[in-house]
């Protein structure tokens, strides 16, 4: 997320390489670790450490694709009763193909997108708009 957008919406920015990263993370969540970690890096080290960043009962969502074997500390994973989710495993070539097809007008984002959500109110209606919404195919959060 660009710095200007982060400032505009008031999102905390943390440096994962800093010595006080875990403490800074906990400060964002009233002394607890994150309830959900979204990892879009595709980086082996980052993805392997995601379990260290969630609280008990937390979720990890892998969005970035790492090509290779990924190791997660199993005792920590189980102790925290972690939920692990992932997106489909699109590659750079897949995205480049989609971009080209969109540029040609062969496909558009409206083919699957059937709902838009306002960023500032989305969290208040998440259960209703996403979890319980049987008609949702692809939603976009607008800033």
UniProtKB/TrEMBL annotation:
<dbReference type="GO" id="GO:0016491">
    <property type="term" value="F:oxidoreductase activity"/>
</dbReference>
<dbReference type="Pfam" id="PF00107">
    <property type="entry name" value="ADH_zinc_N"/>
</dbReference>
<protein>
    <submittedName>
        <fullName>L-galactonate dehydrogenase</fullName>
    </submittedName>
</protein>
<keyword id="KW-0560">Oxidoreductase</keyword>
<dbReference type="InterPro" id="IPR050129">
    <property type="entry name" value="Zn_alcohol_dh"/>
</dbReference>
<feature type="domain" description="Alcohol dehydrogenase-like C-terminal">
    <location>
        <begin position="12"/>
        <end position="103"/>
    </location>
</feature>
<dbReference type="InterPro" id="IPR013149">
    <property type="entry name" value="ADH-like_C"/>
</dbReference>
<dbReference type="InterPro" id="IPR036291">
    <property type="entry name" value="NAD(P)-bd_dom_sf"/>
</dbReference>
